[in-house]
Specification:
Shape: globular
Strand content: 35-45%
Number of helices: 1
Radius of gyration: 14 Å
Largest sheet: 6 strands, antiparallel
Order of helices and strands: EEEEEEEEEEEEH
Length: about 170
């Protein structure tokens, strides 16, 4: 996987905004290659929905120790092990959300790294922000992001791997 066609985020007011179909169950993700971990904080890779009450958003963040965390609007509900993500290396991150049943899965490079975490979701805001929290635009990402995807289905691990393989060969 190479950087051609990716967007560079420089940890300084750089974001991209897209529109989604809100709901309680969906899958989304991206390819990422970060050049630096944000010290003593987290970098937002992609956010769906708006901050507020629990379950109003699903945000993929990256910690200063290379962990992927999921923020649900009021707190962190899913966290991978430290050093899951390496600097200057392309990684495929995908999240599936089963809002009504509370299921959540985090995939890194096609591998389920969390099992299931329980938290209900009902995202009603159709905004998707890449590279930082919206609307305050804080917790910026530093590195490249490519091939952002969103679908209204709960993908299986095999489907996540198919998207990962397709996107990596399309670069």
């Amino acid at each position: 996987f190479c950087g051609d066609g990716s967007a560079f985020f420089d940890n300084d007011n750089a974001t991209a905004t897209l529109s989604t179909t809100p709901g309680s169950s969906f899958s989304y993700g991206l390819w990422m290659n970060v050049s630096d971990f944000v010290p003593s904080s987290q970098a937002v890779l992609i956010e769906i929905g708006a901050s507020g009450s629990a379950g109003s958003q699903v945000t993929i963040t990256l910690t200063s120790t290379g962990q992927i965390q999921i923020f649900n609007g009021s707190g962190f509900i899913g966290t991978t092990a430290a050093n899951t993500v390496e600097l200057n290396t392309w990684h495929f991150i995908a999240v599936t959300v089963e809002g009504s049943s509370g299921g959540l899965k985090i995939y890194v490079d096609g591998v389920d790294v969390t099992g299931s975490h329980t938290a209900t979701f009902n995202v009603t805001d159709n905004s998707m922000t890449v590279g930082a929290f919206a609307p305050s635009s804080s917790f910026y990402t530093e590195g490249n992001i490519a091939n952002v995807f969103y679908c209204t289905e709960i993908l299986t691990q095999d489907q996540v791997r198919q998207i990962m393989r397709f996107n990596s060969s399309a670069q």
